[in-house]
Amino acid sequence: MSRVVVLTDLHIRAEPEPGKPDADARLLSAIDHINRYQSDADLVIVTGDLAHSGERAAYDKLASHLTRLALPHVLMLGNHDNRAAFLDAFPQISPDENGHVQQVVDLPEARLICLDTLNGPPYSYPFSHLGVLCAERLAWLDAALSGTDRPCILFMHHPAHKTGFAAMDAIMLMHGPAFYDRILAHGNVAHIVCGHVHRTISGSHRGVPFSIFKSLVGQMPMLFDLMDFHMETDEPPAYGLLMISDDGVVAHSEDFGLTDLDALRAASPQNASSQPK
Q1: Within a domain: residue 164?
Q2: Is the entire prediction scored with pTM above 0.90?
Q3: Contact 74, 58 (CB under 8 A)
Q4: Closest-CA residue to 210 (of 232, 238, 247, 240)
Q5: Residue 248: Cβ within 10 Å count
Q6: Could you tell me the CATH number of the domain that includes residue 263?
Q7: Which Pfam families does the entry link to (predicted)?
Q8: 210 contacts 229 by C-beta, under 8 angstroms
Q9: What is the pLDDT of residues 44-63, one digit of tens each?
């Protein structure tokens, strides 16, 4: 069985913003928790909105923070990111032939396909927070889906279908029905993982299971009708954990600041009975 940790919507800022959660502290706390409790995972995938405003200084901070992460990691882009500034700060990452930050990772049980849904810059559509998969990116996806006999798990920042939140559904992936037509034609997508909504959401769309994970710095309140995508509540941050087997995908969400797992383990009768006397 393979295990993949999912972080999303870090929103690292060049300078802290008063009244907002400390994004740097949240990320470092998540990294420490992952290092301690998920050390047997195969990798960490971060599904976009790495920086809040796409500043080079924010990406430099992120690069420094990630030196503490003991697992290999894949970084993806979201609507708050800046592709050029990101690539300047992470020169070890090579974009595809069209300049997009996309990657395939093959595990024994599945192929992981990490997509770049960032609209810009430069912005090809007036509303910059919308997700986009242009013709070049769709061709890349076709090749990735065609090039394996394993089931595929797609990772993308923007959901390609509505989630019920009016504000976030207004800035979802463009041309979602066409995207689903394309992946269903391939017939090998086992799961889709997204961020963007700042909420733990799961279900299926057109028969394809999906998981959306929480942000580290603020969650969308359960007010479905408000057209305010800046509204957030400071609920506990979380990361996702995918357990991938030949039988499918199990998705967990860990609110990592709530429970002292070491204390629970130490207090467990099973743990006590296993200690030598």
Answers
A1: yes
A2: yes
A3: no
A4: 240
A5: 13
A6: 3.60.21.10
A7: Metallophos (PF00149)
A8: no
A9: 999 999 999 999 999 999 99
Q: Are 109 and 149 in contact (CB under 8 A)?
A: no
Number of domain units in the chain = 1
Residues in the chain, overall count: 277
Mean pLDDT value of segment 25-47 = 97
9: left (phi over 0), alpha (psi -120 to 50) or beta: left
pLDDT at 268 over 80: yes
Q: What are phi and psi of 167, to 5 degrees?
A: -65, -45
Distance separating alpha carbons of residues 173 and 177, to the nearest angstrom: 10
Give residue 75's domain range. Answer: 2-268
Q: Residue 275 falls within a domain, yes or no?
A: no
Residue 117 covered by a domain? yes
Q: What is the pLDDT of residue 272?
A: 53
Which H/E stretch holds residue 209?
strand 208-212
Per residue in 235-255, pLDDT (tens digit) is 899 999 999 999 999 999 999
What is the distance between the alpha carbons of residues 133 and 118, in angstroms, rounded to a whole number? 8
